[in-house]
């Protein structure tokens, strides 16, 4: 699992950027690669999602961690693949998208390429109530975390990354849903330890 890549941006094209680190060049697919234009030839950190299937391995990159986490959530929605998820992130801000989900605005959601009414309803069904931490506070226009303090936010992020890693190892969404409640109770402070605990739970289930 590649959580992020730190290195120098060496090239940018319509679909991806290339980052060189320690002599290795990583091709990273992005929603809007030219958003990195000001970073060309500079060293930056890109949050990445390592997408692994039998016939391909792809690296998707994001400037903000919440974009990466939303991308991962979208991949769990039936009918949404990596290209569709990337297209959504490339044309809307995270708070705006979450607001549409919470308001069940399927008319708004169907404006995205490849998203019909059925897929829009599936997104609402699968995601409503799970993304409200990214809704803006109307009073100060800053992101607030409902019913969560900093500690619980960090714990949730560790859980999300551990589940992503387990999925990359070949475990299905159905298998991961079985262990998620137990894994969420864990007090492990390191992602690697959380992944190991997840593997133990999967072996028992």
UniProtKB/TrEMBL annotation:
Q: Where is this region: Domain III?
A: 154-205
Swiss-Prot/TrEMBL keywords: Cytoplasm, DNA damage, DNA recombination, DNA repair, DNA-binding, Hydrolase
Q: Name one Pfam family in it.
A: RuvA_C
Q: Is Chloroplast set as a keyword in this record?
A: no
Q: Which GO terms describe its molecular function?
A: DNA helicase activity; hydrolase activity
| Localization in the cell | Cytoplasm
The residues covered by the Helix-hairpin-helix DNA-binding motif class domain are 72-91, 107-126
Q: Which domain of life is it from?
A: Bacteria
Where it mainly occurs, coarsely classed, is cytoplasm
Q: How does it assemble?
A: Homotetramer. Forms an RuvA(8)-RuvB(12)-Holliday junction (HJ) complex. HJ DNA is sandwiched between 2 RuvA tetramers; dsDNA enters through RuvA and exits via RuvB. An RuvB hexamer assembles on each DNA strand where it exits the tetramer. Each RuvB hexamer is contacted by two RuvA subunits (via domain III) on 2 adjacent RuvB subunits; this complex drives branch migration. In the full resolvosome a probable DNA-RuvA(4)-RuvB(12)-RuvC(2) complex forms which resolves the HJ.
Say which family it is in.
Belongs to the RuvA family.
Q: What does this protein do?
A: The RuvA-RuvB-RuvC complex processes Holliday junction (HJ) DNA during genetic recombination and DNA repair, while the RuvA-RuvB complex plays an important role in the rescue of blocked DNA replication forks via replication fork reversal (RFR). RuvA specifically binds to HJ cruciform DNA, conferring on it an open structure. The RuvB hexamer acts as an ATP-dependent pump, pulling dsDNA into and through the RuvAB complex. HJ branch migration allows RuvC to scan DNA until it finds its consensus sequence, where it cleaves and resolves the cruciform DNA.
Q: What is known of its domains?
A: Has three domains with a flexible linker between the domains II and III and assumes an 'L' shape. Domain III is highly mobile and contacts RuvB.
Protein name in UniProt: Holliday junction branch migration complex subunit RuvA
Q: Which organism is it from?
A: Halobacillus campisalis
């Amino acid at each position: 699992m590649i959580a992020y890549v730190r290195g120098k941006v060496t090239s940018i094209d319509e679909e991806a950027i290339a980052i060189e680190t320690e002599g290795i060049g990583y091709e990273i697919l992005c929603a809007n690669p030219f958003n990195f234009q000001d970073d060309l030839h500079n060293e930056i950190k890109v949050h990445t999602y390592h997408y692994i299937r039998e016939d391909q391995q792809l690296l998707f990159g994001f400037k903000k961690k919440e974009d990466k986490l939303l991308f991962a959530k979208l991949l769990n929605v039936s009918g949404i693949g990596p290209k569709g998820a990337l297209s959504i992130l490339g044309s809307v801000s995270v708070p705006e998208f979450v607001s549409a989900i919470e308001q069940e605005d399927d008319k708004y959601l169907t404006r995205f390429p490849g998203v019909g009414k059925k897929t829009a309803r599936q997104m609402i069904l699968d995601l409503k109530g799970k993304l409200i931490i990214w809704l803006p506070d109307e009073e100060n226009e800053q992101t607030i975390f409902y019913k969560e303090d900093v500690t619980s936010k960090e714990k949730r992020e560790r859980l999300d990354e551990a589940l992503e890693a387990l999925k990359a190892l070949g475990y299905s969404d159905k298998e991961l849903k079985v262990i998620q409640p137990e894994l969420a109770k864990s007090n492990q402070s390191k992602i690697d330890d959380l992944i190991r605990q997840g593997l133990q739970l999967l072996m028992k289930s």
